[in-house]
Amino acid sequence: MKKYLLALLALPTFAFAEDSLNSGDTAWMLVATAFVMLMTPAGIGLFYGGLTRGKNVLNTMGMSVAAYAVGTLVWVIVGYSIAFGDGDLIGTGKVMLSGITDKSLTGTIPELLFVAFQGTFAAIAVAIASGSMIERVKFSTFIIFAALWVVAVYAPITHWAWSGNSTTLNFGEMDFAGGTVVHLNAGVAGFVVAMILGKRKDYGKVALKPFSPILVVLGAALLWFGWFGFNAGSEVAADGVAGSAFLVTNVAASLGVIGWIIVEWIVYKKATLVGGASGAVAGLVAITPAAGSAGVEGAIIIGLVGGALGFYGVSKLKSIFKVDDSLDAFWIHGLVGIWGSVATAIFISDYAMAENYDMGSQLVSQFSAIGLTIVYSAIATAIVFYVSSALTGGGRVDEETESRGLDETVHGEKTLNI
């Protein structure tokens, strides 16, 4: 999330223009924020809802809605302060948006709009993580987990990468829109919770078929649409870099579809709708950190490999690790997020490259940030989940609830055809 000025390429911070309100930038960021908002209760909700089983569709979608609502609340109370306040390891001074008025600016846009834009990122991160734990986590546990995770895990990592402060844990990573901050972070968090919860009672015993490939495709399409705000909006300006980010986002998503279904066809002699939709998301994840610096040629390779790698993670690596990551959040967001972060240092266009750019040094920075994100997210997420579980009498539903499905037992609702 930064403007890649040539002399500031290695700084993973926002390089804003001088503080003067620009109505064009403001109008674009209003639209971009609305785009990203759509990604969580609609995009992730439908995508995940279609992937789960019929008896848990509403619960799964409800977790996305809850993630957005809870994430938004804790973000404006304290999350934004931790992420973008002054300070080294964590930010301070902006609790309840203290000191921010309608006249306050972040670069060329109102700071209140920047708060809203960044809040949509926090919300979608915890919603992504929910995909690893569905069908067996208590809804009450997840609500508390979502609140604590945004504060204790997401906000500090955001501060180190994007706050603009010269923090001890800023490694000079290039992460334009959240390859590590959002996707790797959320993927690791989901994987850790899935390990703690254990496998679903019928995992590996019966076929766990998606409820609706149609909903999966619709959700993926909404995510694809919203991702234009996610990536192009991360320039925080209506300029040429935003236009380039918009283009390469579309290219990488398309190549993600192609990469997934090519490998799927080679392995299974089938090209599935669910696979194509998953490939689109993988391509989008892969290009996210490089959206402000990669050209079209780079986007083609990044997206193609992202789609193929996502398929390999879901179809092969998942069985090796033997962790019941219900909807493959780690393999599509975490694993592919690592690829995207590494690829960012490799596929950089001439217009974004500083004269003294050194790929080797930048790769060290990328791997350092990847390592920090994995270690901190894993440890802090485990602590947050154990606390959430303790506050709700255990984090996993009982066997009867799991067997009957959480839609009816937890929410008192069910889909019409179940």
Task: Explain the overall architecture.
- The protein is mainly α and 418 residues long.
- The protein has one domain: Ammonium transporter AmtB like domains (Ammonium transporter fold).
- Helices cover 65% and strands 1% of the residues.
- The chain has 13 helices and two strands.
- The protein has helices spanning 23-51, 57-84, 111-130, 139-162, 179-197, 213-232, 240-268, 273-287, 296-321, 329-346, 359-391, 399-404, 406-411; strands at residues 105-106, 109-110.
- The chain has a two-stranded antiparallel ribbon.
Percent of sequence in beta strands: under 5%
Find the count of extended strands (DSSP E, 2+ residues).
2
CATH class: Mainly Alpha
Strand order, largest beta sheet: 1-2
| Biggest pleated-sheet summary | 2 strands, antiparallel
* Sequence stretches where pLDDT stays below 50 over 5 or more residues: 1-13
- Under the CATH scheme, the architecture is Orthogonal Bundle
Q: Looking at this structure, what is the CATH superfamily?
A: Ammonium transporter AmtB like domains
How much helical structure, as a percent, in the residues?
A: 55-70%
Report the C-alpha radius of gyration, rounded: 20 Å
Enumerate how many helices there are, as a single number.
Answer: 13
First CA to last CA: what distance? 43 Å
- Any idea of the CATH topology? Ammonium transporter fold
